[in-house]
Amino acid sequence: MPATAENCITIVLATANRDKVKELRPLLETISPLFNVVTLHELGVEVEIEETEETLEGNALLKARAIFALLSVRFPFMIALADDTGLEVEALHGAPGVYSARFAPVADGQAPTYQDNVRHLLYCMEGMTNREARFRTVVALKGTLPSPEGSFSFEHTAEGVVKGSITRKEQGDKGFGYDPLFLVQTTGKTYAQMSMTEKNRLSHRSLAVQQAISYLKDILQQKSAPLIDTNTRP
Ligand code: IMP
After folding, report:
1. CA distance 154 to 142
2. Of 56, 85, 78, residue with least CA distance to 11
């Protein structure tokens, strides 16, 4: 199916986090010419969605639903895509987990910086020998897509997990968040020592996005029009 204004599907990245947008965009932009990936910033939308749920899945869905409700009137076919991510440290019984963004204690009304959280994690793990950890992302999709009858709606979540360990000091200066502390055993590097392309080849976020893309391909195949995959086109 050729991409036209009528059948173009807008994927709205339901996040204000520019670091996430930087990683998500290249993962999504090559799926199909039918998809047009846009950010909230590009749409001129400024919203603060409070993460009130106690699970990554709950928060990802909350964000995707809120952005879909806000923007679906603007687009005939759209998908709101939200990601919620947590670093789960074994010796800390899964903390900081869903509270990864709000881990370090700071004054009331303030939000900790990436650096605050990194320092706090190193402090909490001082002297600990078990450094095992995993990064987990849940991607939530809420959308409306074209079908022979007109359109259909769907909601879906997909998960990506990468196992690693927490280093004793920061290593590397790329990436964001806890990247300088998260060592991926199979590579011998922290995420912060990888280029974005390298991180995107194996990260928790890219695994979750790949699952989400497979789901999209399946439902489009079954209910709508099969995708032309620009990654595999000759
Ligand atoms: P969020 O709730 O999904 O926005 O993410 C929670 C926190 O986890 C962020 O503020 C970052 O500190 C951290 N985080 C999320 N994704 C990554 C990542 O890919 N690498 C390192 N830290 C991350």
Report:
1. 6
2. 78
Q: What span, in angstroms and rounded, lies between the C-alpha atoms of 25 and 37?
A: 7
Answering whether pTM is above 0.90, one says yes
Whether 229 is a known active-site residue: answer no
Which residue lies with its CA nearest to atom 9 of ligand 1? 101
The pLDDT tens digits for 157-183 are 999 999 999 999 999 999 999 999 999
What pLDDT, on the 0 to 100 scale, is given for residue 234? 36
User: All domains of the chain, ordered by start, with CATH?
Assistant: 9-223 (3.90.950.10)
Residue nearest to atom 15 of ligand 1 (CA): 85
Tell me the HSE value of 18 on the side-chain side, using a 13 A CA sphere. Answer: 2
Instruction: Determine the Cα–Cα distance for residues 14 and 65; give it in Å rounded to an integer.
Output: 9
Per-position DSSP letters for 58-116, written without gaps between them: HHHHHHHHHHHHHHTTT-SSEEEEEEEEEEEEGGGTT-EETTGGG-S---TT----HHH
The residue behind tokens 């807008």 is 10
Determine the distance separating the centroid of ligand 1 and the alpha carbon of 176, expressed in angstroms. Answer: 8
Residue among 19, 83, 84, 173 flagged as catalytic: 84
What's the half-sphere exposure (Cβ side, CA atoms, 13 Å) at 80?
A: 24
